[in-house]
Design brief:
The protein contains one helix and nine strands. By secondary structure, the protein is mainly beta. It has one domain: Sandwich (Jelly Rolls), CATH 2.60.120. Strands 1, 2, 4, 5, 6, 7 and 8 form a seven-stranded antiparallel beta sheet that branches. Strand 5 and strand 6 form a beta hairpin. The longest helix is centred in the N-terminal third of the chain and has 6 residues. The N and C termini lie far apart (30 Å).
Length: 123
């Protein structure tokens, strides 16, 4: 049996200048995450959030966050919390259980493999 993957189409094609701030400012929801663009076998997502995303892991892809606006917290399995501010970048290796939080509106760029899969942990 072959595995089928959901691959989200990018909002923008190659050779198009993308204004990340304008895209983020257009989001009115407390959580929205979508693919802006794709490079080789990776995608660049923008995530706008205020609140908490549940514990999860990505078994097939590392995940790198670059904070653009606000303060972004990443809780790691084992009790460690990483706090990121604008301009800070952090990578979570594939398979590492984590959850993300934002106590205020936060915008980050996320870089991951286009075939990344999110396995939400129900506890």
């Amino acid at each position: 049996m072959t595995e089928r993957l959901h691959v989200e189409e990018p909002a923008f094609a190659p050779l198009v200048a993308i204004n990340v701030k304008r895209e983020a400012d257009s989001v009115s929801e407390s959580y929205k995450n979508f693919v802006l663009n794709q490079v080789n076998d990776h995608c660049i997502r923008v995530a706008v959030m205020h609140g908490e995303y549940p514990w999860h892991h990505h078994p097939r892809s590392d995940e790198t966050f670059l904070v653009v606006e606000g303060v972004f917290e990443i809780d790691l399995d084992g009790g460690r919390t990483v706090t990121l501010r604008p301009g800070e970048l952090f990578t979570i290796p594939a398979g590492v259980r984590h959850r993300t939080r934002a106590r205020e509106r936060t915008v980050n760029l996320c870089f991951e493999n286009v075939g990344a899969y999110t396995d939400v942990v129900f506890s």
